[in-house]
Amino acid sequence: MNTKLKEIFKGKVVNKDHTLNTGVDEFPRYVLEYLIDNYCSEETFHEDMAQVVRRLKENFVHGAEAEKIRHFIRENRRHVLIANMEVRLVETEDKYWASIPAINESYVHIPEGLVSQYPMLLSGGMWGTIELTYDENEIHNKKIRPFKVLNFTPFQVSYINLDEYIEKRSLFSTEEWMDILINSCGLDPSAMTRRQKLLYLCRCIPLVENNVNLIELGPRETGKTYLYRNISYYAHVLSGGKATPSQLFINLNTGKIGLVGTRDCVVFDEIANTDFIDPKAFVSIMQGYMQDSKFSRGKKEILAFGSLVLVGNLDVQGDLPHEKYYHLFEPLPGFLQVIAFLDRIHGYLPGWEIPKLTPQSYSKDYGFITDYFCEIMHELRKVDVLASMRSRFEVVDTARTAKGVSGRDQRAVMKLASGLLKLLYPHGVITDKELEELLLIACELRQRVREQLYIMAPGEYERINIGVRILPSGKEVVPILPDANRVHKVSLPPRPSIGEVIGLAVAGERGCILLFEMQATKGSGKIVPLGSIQRVMRESIEAAAQYIKAKHEELGITEEWRKSFDVAVLATFMSIPKEGPSAGVTIVTGIVSALKGIPVRNDLAMTGEITIMGKVLPVGGIQEKIRAAYDAGISEVLLPEDNLKEAQLLPQYILESVKLTPVASLKDVLERAFVSRS
What we know:
- This protein is of the alpha/beta class.
- The chain has four domains: about 1-60; about 65-155; about 165-475, Rossmann fold (3-Layer(aba) Sandwich); about 495-675, 2-Layer Sandwich (Ribosomal Protein S5, domain 2).
- Helices cover about 35% and strands about 25% of the residues.
- The protein has 24 helices and 34 strands.
- A seven-stranded mixed sheet has the order 27-28-26-25-30-33-34. A five-stranded antiparallel sheet has the order 4-3-2-5-8. The chain has a five-stranded parallel sheet with strand order 10-12-16-9-19.
- The longest helix is centred in the middle third of the chain and has 25 residues, at about 430-455.
- Residues about 530-535 and about 575-580 have low confidence and may be disordered.
């Protein structure tokens, strides 16, 4: 395969193994690969590479040496350095200025001929050899601007032929091409399964497709930003720190367009640790941009094409996200867990399926030179491969729900599918089986977003199954999400048990099941809360203890329990803090069960605040709680009678499945909670 690739793409590929452990990590990979390709031969690689490294170190300017080099240029009137240079046009002066960060200079004269010769200088800049001179007589707008570019030799390809690239793709099989792309990303495809390769290539979708909004959460050390940092200079990675509307969209003071308008892709690394200045304003602007690719600040409305990628860490349990997460957006900052914002994310990439990077993970074969690959991906953004495929399929809801697939679902699947087609089949030749494979991946990424939206806001979102119908055969296929069954579930007691009671709570915007366990042991009458039970629930425990103490005779509990027994109270629901007063009825029921040795019904859930007199008071989130009971298969819910009217507004299918029993007192609760001894 290496021989075939070198023959067909002569001068555009490099041995990726040679780019590792070079000792010059301060340079982008595309710089190093360009130099290897141009100045190193296979026969004398190590000797040639030593010369390249020596030259890089001799001509590279470290930040601390900037002033020293400025002085050297002034004294010697000429100097050659290796650095990145970016050019901008200042319209008010009708002049191009070069910016060279290595010498802390943003006003460097540059011949217009160089700008015309290397237009990439105007879009992100280029690395190369820069020959500089110094002339103190150069005055511009009454300011001395002495630094001048005499010559520039780029370390990047200055021209690509996309048509040639697309034509040559047809000379490779799908399997060969997939491996070439993975190698070009710097990784070893032989260490991946086919699904892992496809998922990894999904990381490239924002680089080839305009306005794609992607999220990837997964364990550490899977290289979530490796691709964006090393493969594309059109991508910008924000690693923690502060993110402002001015930085991302437009600076109202200067009018300068931000990263979203100037880069192909903006990546928010360690999203949970990013400090967003004015989070509400940020989310508002982001929602608008994610919806229609426009943003406005002040009187300006700007059309932009930058894709957005949110990257963060997520704990795993086995091969799946940890069960502690109620929904898979939970690792995001709270202000981003907004339904309207999350619905605009096109795809959720399962980062937990991508292997961790090890020294053995990196490519040992040939792949595209990084800057060539980068430019190809940039140019692919202008190509429409999907149009010729559109008549071959349609996106459907295989669950046949009332609302079905939304417009956002349709757009998301189309964008994701388009990106994968550009990467793997830019020549437009693809079988139905291959098309089905890509469409299923696209559907899966969007389905994962919709699944979490349903979990977070079941009243607003139905549980749909996003699939595709292959035309004209009519075959329907739907992705299987390995993580779908991981959705936050508590194992209900398989049979009525002593001291086990099913309670109801609200986590975020979603109801959930709380499983309480109470156990009576030899002791001195203490009630001992265990786990992460918070202050308000401890107050519920105290109220329960006071009620049982006062009513022990009516309850059939002897005074002896205060002298001879302790009751431990444990509430289990993954990582959800056990807060709030609505578990009062549950706690009393469990303690009474533990002390009397009577099993509690395992098909019954309950909620309600209590007073020391035994009254049951209304609680919040009653609809969400009953929905959780319905999802868990609970047949009856005991709820405060003052909550009944609100509960009866739930959909009829829930009301027909779950019996709602209003209660006014703890006496009512205890009469219905225990298994009959008859």
